[in-house]
């Protein structure tokens, strides 16, 4: 039976004493034990793996051979017949063939106890390490596999080089994109879409990829009013449009009474002056719609939730003034019913409208009364007549029959 010579890295044809049948000789078994001890204790002799780097390289390596570019190209004698790559943890068989340790063990388990090259009977117990081939392969020159790196080194130093190579890539801790190590710091601080940024207006933190969304919602961002083009912060825009903007479209103050006009805020005063009489008619129609017992709710709904049950009672007091009753009786009924603040505001507004309407009608009334008084003998300029006219007009609008 053949015995393995670790110094020559090959099998020699010589008889070993004590060989029995097809079992390995005591010589081969002794050599196997010696080689196993050399792998466990790399500092004992020249037949061991050379550096701690190469040991860790083998520990973390994938199952198959070294898939790297050799310079010069790899010789076929160092190529695994199974994975066709450089031998990793080289193993030799009794029939003289070399394989990666994991490759030949997997082959024996999957396809049976035969050599993949010559189909000779082979078991895992017959395999033994080829340290000579290991040393030779680890001494071969390889190129760095990282794109852009021109470094060359022995295979045993490749792992250490990859740990520090500036052309090596690693995933960004924020976006998980593969980035060169030399560019990783710039990427994480300037380019990464998932980097954290701070809003200069509200000092809120968010991902850079959400910048556009935040700009649309930031309460302190500068925005421009769509009506008057004034620059404001977003948090003030709603209040500005509701109360201050001169060009914001608003409804007439008498919209609750039926006026459908809408205008810019700065045109409201002109509208109120030009349509005073129309507003008075709207208010009169509204008040007529209110019944004493509150059965007619159509007009009350125009006021929305501001009209309560108490306001309906107050509205009834206003209706008590309709019809041919005196102003004194209306005042008494109003005092007895104790109108709410809302109905009091309506009556105050009605009084202002009557006053505005009288002011607008004053020139025409004065001319009419002067022409009437001119036909009377000894009558004055018509001051008392004008007063009576104004009084009658106010009574007609306030106490007109339903």
From TrEMBL:
Compartments (UniProt record): Cytoplasm, Cell cortex; Lipid droplet
Domain of life according to the entry: Eukaryota
Alphabetical list of Pfam families matching this protein: zf-C3HC4_2, zf-TRAF
Protein name: E3 ubiquitin-protein ligase TRAF6
Keyword set includes Lyase: no
Alphabetized Gene3D superfamilies for the sequence: Zinc/RING finger domain, C3HC4 (zinc finger) (3.30.40.10)
SMART domains: RING
GO cellular component, one term: cell cortex
MF terms (GO), sorted A to Z: tumor necrosis factor receptor binding; ubiquitin protein ligase activity; zinc ion binding
InterPro entries, sorted: TRAF6_RING-HC, Znf_RING, Znf_RING/FYVE/PHD, Znf_RING_CS, Znf_TRAF
Main localization of the protein described in the UniProt heading: cytoplasm
GO terms under biological process: innate immune response; intracellular signaling cassette; lipopolysaccharide-mediated signaling pathway; protein ubiquitination; regulation of canonical NF-kappaB signal transduction
